[in-house]
Design a protein that fits this description.
Blueprint lengths: L1 E8 L2 E12 L2 E12 H16 L11 E6 L1 H13 L1 H8 L9 H14 L7 H5 L4 H4 L10 H7 L5 H19 L5 E10 L25 E8 L6 E8 L4 H19 L6 E5 L8 H6 L6 E7 L16 E2 L9 E9 L2 E9 L1 H33 L11 H11 L5 H4 E7 L5 E7 L1 H10 L3 E6 L6 H9 L2 H10 L15 H27 L6 H9 L2 E8 L6 E7 L4 H9 L10
Parallel strand pairs: 5-8, 8-9
Antiparallel strand pairs: 1-2, 2-3, 4-16, 5-6, 6-7, 9-15, 10-11, 11-12, 12-15, 13-14, 16-17
Helix pairs in contact: 2-4, 2-17, 2-18, 3-4, 3-8, 4-17, 18-19
Length: about 575
């Protein structure tokens, strides 16, 4: 049941229509509409009374029909892409005959859709006609926005053209927004798909799914972004069964080529990457200056320098700065990946505490599972369980290995599997608290970094590596189910998958730039909130039909929207993009 509630904002009290909904067993308030302040409500009531007392004339005639179109986010993304010249750059490399929508316009529309309301190409036109984009793309029609027409046009877009388009577009973005390229962040992720096992495409493959979907084919995505506003500056799709370190090696020259287009100083760019990307010859490849030399800050796996983990804590130096809290670091020089590098072991108490919570939870889970296994084996030995396949030494060993698969569990739990005189399998286990103490002191809270930035302080190295969260934030955004969703991948060939990835990354790029422009207006908000605020702006078309069927009078209005969206709309004069019938 709906009801009226109020909230105070600044010096004003605003009234809302709301209703209650049950979610997760609790009642939550859901705002349906904003009514305004008491003064605004009083003025609206007086206006309604005035109109009721005024005889209806042709000028005050109520509309025969009203269309409400989504406007704010669509207009903002379209205007931004026009200022960047996105369609023109695409059309420069992917040409077609002059009639109908250009390939650039198709990609523009696809990127806007992925950003705001991701739908399949079968629902593309249905979404389009409910937005003000009908005024921005007057040549778009139902047949031209069909799935078949869209993908027919995409045959003119291959990987070589996509790379050329991104080369030019990235250079434009870096120049226009003065994007700092002194440090660049790189990482890989993957996305699950529902592509059939028998599908012959090379990109979707079964591999190590970061979403734990080992039963599905996955698609890998490499991304390089700026530390400020997470702006994508490079992307590449790769087969899902390819490991991160191999992919990193294979695209280093491509990363350098893209960086060379963006940076004036080709020997002063620092690439930051995590421990999953390092490999034997990675340092030599990064420092090779054939295309461009990279400085780097990378992560190492703890087992790559196990002796450093035993360093006494009195040899650690505190990291200076409120952002580091109580963290400290031990610095040394060591040969890593066949090259001498500066190595930094950091000790973070906050990280240790959070990891310890996970360790204790896993210990409890493993203990229960091992005890359940031990009890089942005992019951079988006693003849109380007779059904099912008889356990063997190998099957029980595999079972224990699976139970102790979580981090450090094999170190903490000791077990013995034996065969009794009755030929039945038995298991004993216990927790090795000495090993647990070693894990706590030598492993938890520790991170190992390596770099050729020998002139940087400990604080600079750690801060650079921690900036890796920016690229991880982009990955989380692309796995969001409401905005900018990369999934589901409804395509089944390598070509269409590459095109899909291209306009998904383009959508993310536009939204990151929108966030930058919003920040310049004084609104430091997330991409999700940014799009939600802009979506509050609607266009309303009031339509009166004439005596003849083809005669109609259309009056356009724009709804009241949030202060944040209105600031952006006014700044860039977006009202000029309103739809017209």
């Amino acid at each position: 049941m709906a009801y009226i509630t109020h909230r105070k904002s600044g010096n004003n009290t605003y009234y809302y229509i709301a209703r209650s909904e049950w979610k997760n067993g609790r009642s939550h308030q859901v705002i349906i509409d904003r009514l305004g302040t008491a003064e605004q409500l009083f003025a609206a009531r007086a206006d309604i009374q005035s109109k009721a007392e005024t005889p209806e004339t042709p000028e005050t005639k109520h509309p025969d029909i009203v269309r409400v179109l989504s406007f704010g986010a669509e207009a903002a993304l379209y205007d931004l892409s026009e200022r960047l010249g996105v369609a023109d750059i695409i059309n420069k490399y992917a040409k077609k005959r002059s009639q109908g929508l250009s390939i650039g316009s198709y990609i523009q529309l696809a990127a806007i859709n992925r950003a705001i309301a991701p739908v399949s190409k079968l629902s593309f036109f249905q979404w389009f006609r409910q937005t003000s984009l009908t005024g921005m793309f007057p040549d778009a029609a139902k047949h031209s926005l069909s799935s078949q027409s869209f993908w027919n046009h995409m045959t003119g877009l291959d990987q070589e053209q996509i790379t050329a388009i991104e080369d030019e577009l990235t250079a434009v973005i870096v120049n226009k927004y003065k994007v700092s390229t002194g440090s660049l962040l790189f990482d890989n992720t993957n996305f699950m798909t529902y592509i059939d096992t028998s599908n012959p495409a090379a990109i979707p493959q079964r591999g190590h799914s970061k979403e734990k979907r080992t039963d599905l084919k996955i698609i890998g995505l490499s991304l390089m972004v700026s530390p400020e506003f997470n702006i994508p500056l490079f992307h590449e799709i790769y087969p899902g069964n390819k490991c991160d370190s191999k992919q990193f090696i294979d695209i280093i020259d491509k990363l350098k080529a893209r960086s060379a287009l963006m940076s004036d100083d080709k020997n002063d760019t620092t690439l930051i990457f995590d421990k999953g990307n390092n490999s034997e010859n990675i340092v030599a490849m990064l420092e090779d200056d054939t295309i461009q030399k990279y400085h780097f800050v990378g992560g190492l796996r703890l087992n790559q320098c196990p002796e450093l983990l035993e360093t006494e804590r009195n040899q650690y130096a505190p990291l200076v700065g409120a952002q580091f809290k109580k963290a400290s670091a031990f610095r040394t020089q060591k040969e890593v990946c066949n090259q001498l590098a500066t190595v930094l072991v950091t000790d973070n108490p906050c990280l240790r505490d959070s990891q310890l919570v996970g360790i204790e939870a896993n210990m409890d889970k493993c203990k229960k599972s091992l005890q359940a296994l031990k009890d089942r084996l005992q019951l079988r030995a006693e003849g109380k369980i007779s059904k099912g396949k008889k356990p063997t030494f190998d099957s029980v060993s595999k079972n224990v290995k699976d139970i102790l698969s979580a981090d450090y569990m094999k170190k903490i739990f000791k077990f013995n599997i034996g065969i009794g005189n009755d030929n039945h399998i038995y298991i004993d286990y216990y927790i090795d608290y000495n090993s647990l103490d070693i894990v706590k002191s030598n492993h938890l809270g520790k991170t190992i970094l390596f770099t050729n930035r020998n002139d940087w302080s400990n604080e600079q190295i750690v801060a650079a590596y921690r900036a890796q969260f920016h690229v991880e934030e982009d990955f989380r955004q692309m796995k969001n189910i409401k905005y900018l969703s990369f999934r589901p991948v409804r395509h089944f060939t390598d070509r269409t998958i590459r095109v899909h990835a291209f306009y998904c990354v383009l959508a993310l790029t536009l939204c990151c730039l929108l966030k930058l422009e919003m920040n310049e207006l004084g609104h430091d908000i997330s991409i999700n909130r940014l799009l939600t605020e802009l979506n509050s702006a609607k266009q309303v078309l009031a339509i009166n039909f004439g005596e003849k069927k083809d005669q109609q009078r259309v009056t356009s209005y724009f709804s009241e929207s949030s202060n944040i969206s209105q600031d952006y709309i006014n700044k860039y004069h977006l009202q000029r993009y309103g739809a017209k019938l």
